[in-house]
Design a protein that fits this description.
With 239 residues, the chain is mostly helical. It is 73% helix and 5% strand. It has helices at 2-24, 28-81, 87-121, 130-170, 173-185, 208-216, and strands at residues 191-195, 198-199, 221-222, 229-231. The protein is rod-shaped, with a radius of gyration of 41 Å. The structure holds zinc ion.
Length: 239
Amino acid sequence: MREQLTELARLQEIDDQLAKLERSKGDYPQRIDELESELTRRVQLQQGMEEEEKDLQKEQRNLERQIKDHQARVAKLQDRLGEVKTNKEWDALQKEMDAAKGELSGVEDHLLEIMEKIEGAGDDPETDGEELDDFKPHAEAEIKDLKVKLSGVDSKMARIRSERDALTVHLDDGLKRIYNRVKEGKQGTAVVPVVRGACGGCYNRIPPQTITEIRRAERPITCENCGRIMLWFGEDEGS
Ligand SMILES: [Zn+2]
């Protein structure tokens, strides 16, 4: 049992290391998530803008074609005005001319609107690509850096976990059960040394008879106050 209890102390050490490494990750995972989703948002925003700009340019070309058609029509009417013989014919042509000019100016106004929209798209730093070009390399570099740090911690943890697995294989099931139960309730610390005749976890005084039992290490002795497993590490840690 003494050997088993020593291994239990080693298990506690390993779990402390794992907990410390886990804490050392800090907010890296959240930071990576944040950067990645912000990057995706900005890329989508820019793609959306590029598509919209393409649509606008298509519309621009379409309107320019329409303007040419209308201009040709107006020119043709102008020619015919020079050839009219009667007032009635003149009035009718003039009317047709006014309508054609009206349509032309309507299309021209629409084209102006479209062109203003195309120009306006360049004024928004979030959507004209400039800010994305600036943000993207910084975000990607930071993500890469964080991932390198995380994977360093993860591989260290993997090594320690395999050591842990090798250790727990030999550990008595009953002992493991006590350890796991106490560990969950006591923020990760299940095994404590005896410190100046008291429990190293809660500093509750241990009766001399119990200290003798702990030193004998014939069975796991738990603190009657906090429930942690108390071990004697060769000498009283406090003296
Ligand atoms: Zn205690």
